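tool=predict chain=A
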Amino acid sequence: MNLYSKHPMSPRLIYLIKKRSFFSSSPSLISNSKLPLQKSNESKDLENQVQDTSPNFGNENEANSSALKSQGQINMNDNEKSAQSSHVTEQDSQYVRNLVRKHDYNLYLTSLFSPQNSRDPLYSIWALNFELAKIMSSSSPEIALLKLSWWSSTISQLYNGTCVHTPTGRILFNSIQKYKISKMWLTRNIRGRLLQRKGFRDASDLEKYGEMTIASNIHAHLEILGVRNVNADNAARMIGQSAAIADLVQKILMAANKNIIQIPQSLVLKYNLDVKEILENKSSKALQDAVFDLATPGFTKLCGISEIFIPNSPKSAIPAFLYAVSSPVKLVQTLGKSKL
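tool=predict ok
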């Protein structure tokens, strides 16, 4: 069943999609002019639909309820919630575990250091992350925004007591009920995808993206581990920022093969990078300098994390910090070789 086509949309959202002016004026990569385009009012309204952490469909509540029931997504009373919480199957667990193992094997290996009863909740958090990443990499802009809106609504349903009947949805529902995972970590991950779609103007945009996506998953992991600590939160935030930089540096040429320039626009202008050369996988001294400039603050953040925040965090938080293990390797290789 295609949940995206079945899920009811608000008239306002449908109207904005039909306008299409936003999608024709928003570039997916840096053009040769290297100048950002202005967004229309319709684009801002459409993004607000996705950014709303608690989507409100107004008078459509009854229609939505009817549609959800036809899909098996029935609002439950307290007794039904308790019964539903036992409906996670071994196939569900295997699905999210294999999804993490397939998309990020290093993450899968480090997850084995978490307590066994916390692994499925952790896998469901990252399974959602990979679902969102897949949306942004494989969908047209308009379809991507529709799917992000669907996920935003779905997260609200989970926190309102409605279990979504997918492997990720069932485990997420149980995890939210058991570990009281804060809703903002899931919704921030969704909203962070808008930054990725629009491109990064400078390094601070990239760091903000890492804070909203990767760091949000680490924050949720900390809550699953029962850790609520300021130093741990600061470590999670900075790990997310540095990991986003490391991932982008590693994937510059991979993205170029898809005609996408991921380097922040400010660095393109600062070093007068030739976009055509990057798309043709040609290295240059200017590109090496730009990548070095981008990687340096990421490595500095990791040094600060290891010296300040991690030593002052609870030991039980260590499994969540292991996501940072692969980032120093990527950044040191970049800084040491100073080339792609």
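Confidence is low (pLDDT under 50) at residues 1-40, 52-84. The radius of gyration is 21 Å.
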